[in-house]
Write a structure and sequence with these properties.
The protein is of the alpha+beta class. The protein is 59% helix and 8% strand. It has helices at residues 32-39, 45-58, 88-97, 104-122, 125-137, 142-164, 170-185, 189-196, 209-229, 233-259, 277-290; strands at 19-22, 27-31, 69-74, 80-87. The protein has a four-stranded antiparallel sheet with strand order 1-2-4-3. Helix 1 packs across helix 2, helix 6 runs parallel beside helix 9 and helix 7 (170-185) runs parallel beside helix 10 (233-259). The longest helix has 27 residues, at 233-259.
């Protein structure tokens, strides 16, 4: 198994960038000191970071330092110590602010990335082609990719209906989606991801064909009920989302009764394995305390 996790850490080939996963926020946090060490020739990355923070705050009026989160990461001596961390967006902003020749390749990479996204605004087919290529490289066949793209379009049909019915905030879309998932699977999207052992990856990409069909049915049923009954605002749409998800639940129950087994799978499409170091360390500390 290839256990190389595809995160921002892979940009710093040959340098260890410690990271930790926040399951509640569904975000990675990376050690600022490790990034500074990889990008500069400083003999004291910690002092370098302190001076950089001061400069960014006073001269650039940047609030990046205030966005740092103190988290416990494993030090070279094996112990967990609190250190400044930033999420992915913060780390990319940090790279742009480091005045070092070692940082230039990363800045060029960021510029090229930005250029690609601008090109996609003028020609959206570029984005679609990039997605298709990504899925092909991951081993998905043409039939699966076609169904996946169709599912994305259907999802937009649902969110467009929600938008017309007073749903405007991202967290509201998340709440309604979770109601559909909970109704037919018994799990919120984040819980479903945890069950399958995935994090930021798309849940649908790791679903079986039956799971995808049940998800689609719940969303399509919700969409049609909403169009017919015209709920407005979060609470009314929540009730409709529950009912839509319940329609998929009835289908699931009937199918499982005929099959004699569950159709919910914990399998995923990852080519790597996550290891929750914090969880392992907590377990180790509890064992030592009990001893």
């Amino acid at each position: 198994m290839n256990n190389k996790l595809q995160t921002i850490s892979n940009l710093f080939d040959g340098n260890e960038i410690r990271s930790i996963w926040d399951s509640e926020k569904e975000e990675y946090y990376f050690s600022v000191i490790d990034v500074i060490n990889a990008l500069t020739d400083s003999n004291n990355p910690r002092n370098y970071w302190n001076m950089l923070k001061k400069r960014m705050s006073e001269k650039e009026k940047s609030e990046l330092s205030t966005k740092c989160v103190q988290l416990k990461l494993r030090a070279q001596d094996g112990k967990l110590r609190e250190t400044d961390t930033l999420d992915t967006k913060g780390i990319l902003r940090l790279i742009e602010s480091v005045p070092s020749s070692k940082a230039e390749p990363f800045k060029l990479w960021l510029a090229n990335l930005g250029s690609e996204r601008i090109d996609e605004v003028f020609d959206p087919e570029i984005a679609i082609s990039r997605a298709v290529t990504y899925y092909k490289n991951r081993g998905y066949d043409d039939k699966w990719i076609k169904a996946r793209l169709t599912g994305i379009v259907d999802r937009f049909k649902l969110t467009d209906v929600w938008k017309e019915l007073g749903i405007t905030k991202d967290y509201e879309y998340g709440i309604l989606t979770n109601e559909i998932y909970k109704s037919w699977s018994g799990m919120k999207a984040s819980e479903y991801k945890e069950f399958k052992g995935i994090r930021k990856e798309s849940l649908r990409d790791s679903m079986t064909d039956i799971e995808v069909v049940l998800t689609d049915l719940g969303e399509i049923a919700t969409r049609e009920l909403a169009k017919e009954q015209k709920p407005y605002g979060l609470e009314q749409n929540r009730q409709i989302a529950k009912r839509g998800g319940n329609i998929a639940k009835i289908t699931r129950d009937n199918l499982e009764r005929e099959l004699g087994r569950t159709v919910i799978s914990n399998k995923n499409s990852l080519s790597y394995e996550y290891i929750d170091e914090k969880l392992l360390e907590d377990k180790k500390e509890r064992t030592q305390d009990e001893g």
